[in-house]
Amino acid sequence: MQTYNPKHHTLILLKEFLNLLKQGVPFNQEPLEEDDASFLDQLTGLITALETHDPDAIYKGQPWISRLFRNYPAFAPHLGREVLWYFGGEALHFMPDEEIAKFQLLDDMVAEGRDYLDAKTEIFKAPQ
Q1: What tens digit of pLDDT does each residue of 79-106 get?
Q2: Which domain holds residue 69?
Q3: What is the C-alpha separation between 33 and 37, in angstroms, rounded?
């Protein structure tokens, strides 16, 4: 069993999301509009903050997520939900209560020694 590292997982999801953004309009246009360039810069800065273990990284994520949902709602569903859970705070406003409860249960199960992927699969499996 491999230990789950939420910061590392969040970094992977943010990097994948950045690559996805750069493939779509308006982020694949040259030159980028100022607001679009600023949004990408903010995301790149957030990734760097996580990579360099900046203690304020968690607080930089919350306003970026709010900006994503406010300014680019079409892209928001492509961001892994674990990112919202990781940053918490304002980011949780974009998650329904039922989903928050599932992530709380997942955290509890992992804290009790359950494998992250097994527990996540069990909790988030589609109803039959």
Answers
A1: 999 999 999 998 999 999 999 999 999 9
A2: 6-95
A3: 6
What is the count of structural domains for the chain?
1
Q: Does a structural domain hold residue 16?
A: yes
Return d(Cα 75, Cα 24) in angstroms, integer. Answer: 9
CA dist., res. 42 & res. 47, Å (int): 9
The model's pTM is 0.88
1 found inside a domain: no
HEC per residue, 70-127: HHCCCCHHHCCHHHHHHHCHHHHHHCCHHHHHHHHHHHHHHHCCCCHHHHHHHHHCCC
Residue 102's Cβ-side half-sphere holds a number of Cα atoms within 13 Å equal to: 15
